[in-house]
Amino acid sequence: MLSERWRFPYKGRNKENWEEGEMIKLPVPKSIPLASRRYRIILKSLRDENWLGTISHNQNLVIEIDPVQGPTGRATSLWHEIIHGIDKVWQLKLSEDNIGSLAEGLNQVLQDGFRIELDWAGIPKVK
């Protein structure tokens, strides 16, 4: 059944020309599960804190992404914060450099390899 879920990007496309095709817009969910918790995703200006993204593990359980970034920056920041969450839950003890490299690598593979671009239209902007 899992293979059926992941066929959607290729439906009706010419697989030989896949690399030249248009990007697939994947909606960012309003929340994501991480271990036994559910984290909300919001767009919020973080200029005062000098961050591009944050993840809160306290009662709020929220991932905040600064909307001032372009699409690639927002996506990389989202993966970065999700990897922070994975690191905390599974106690991987990754360094900030490791997390940044993993986020950039994951985003590059999804954008350039799978032709997936995140669609932020359904994510609320908070002041």
Could you explain how this protein is built, in words?
This protein has 127 residues and is of the alpha/beta class. The chain has one domain (23-126). Helix content is 32%, strand content 24%. It contains three helices and seven strands. It has helices at residues 2-5, 71-89, 96-113; strands spanning 24-27, 31-34, 37-44, 53-56, 62-65, 116-119, 125-126. Strands 2, 3, 4, 5 and 7 form a five-stranded mixed beta sheet that branches. Strands 1-6 form a two-stranded parallel sheet. A hairpin with a 5-residue loop joins strand 4 and strand 5 (62-65). Helix 2 crosses helix 3. The longest helix has 19 residues, at 71-89.
- DSSP helix fraction: 25-40%
The tally of beta strands, per DSSP, is 7
Sheet with the most strands, sense and barrel status? 5 strands, mixed
Q: Rg to the nearest angstrom?
A: 16 Å
Whole-number tally of structural domains:
1
Query: What proportion strand?
Result: 15-25%
Task: State the end-to-end CA separation.
Answer: 41 Å
Compressed to H and E, one letter per element, the order equals HEEEEEHHEE
